[in-house]
Please model this.
Amino acid sequence: MAVDRALHTNEYGLPLNTTEWLEKHHLSKAYEREQMIHNLGIEQGNFVIDAGCGPGLWTQLLVEAVGPTGRVLGVDISCAALITAQERATKAHYRQQVQYKLAPLEQLPLPKGEADLIFCANVCQYFPTPVATFAAIGPYLRPNGRLAVKDMDLATMHFSHIDLDLQARVFKARALWEQERVAWGYAFEDSWSGSKLAGHLRAAGYKNVQEKPYRIKRSFPLSENCRFYLLGLAEWFISEGAPYLSHDDKARWSEYFFGSNSCVLDLEDFSYEETEYLVSGVWTATPSQS
Model:
């Protein structure tokens, strides 16, 4: 998620997702994310891959899950993100348990059949062919190892005090734009991917697929991190010119969040909701995949 005027792009070429926004977004959902990792039931001593690790925001949670005898390998295609992740880990007590490597997720830098769990958060929405990507990841798991993927779904998002019809038009305009933005030179994105993940894993050959939705709700007064996250999200909805949204709707949307006299986030009964999906599946290697 990002803003047009941002000076930095992330590893997928999106104009938002600066490290600061990612960090504040992560911290704004710290409780739910701790629950996600806890509920995965990762065993002490496991070897876990943080696939698409970015600046390493999930590393500490994963290290706590694998315990002092476990290991975590973070993999990403962005040198800048990996440098940030490495700097973060260097200062942490878990630095001896963590490594970071540059590689695409379809070609992980480890022998096949080695990982107990591959964890992939907030990157699945950028996979043009998610079924193929998940199938390529599978052979790096031990037999009966698991892939766990987490992502958002805009169909579950709602802001209070904003005209419902306007919200519907803004979301629909984003959906239409995401269907064709690649043809205009932008990276692929599917911000409705969360509810599709279970189907993608089944199609890729995973068994015992389990889906757990996490409903996230925040109310006034918002934390600094949550406020920063929501303002970035609001601007992202009208980024890249928002070609399927009328000028009047863009102006009205901006006024709600960036008006000169008020911001909807500061209303005493403001609230917002969204659901993130965590889906896991078991990999069973076949002779051709082992």
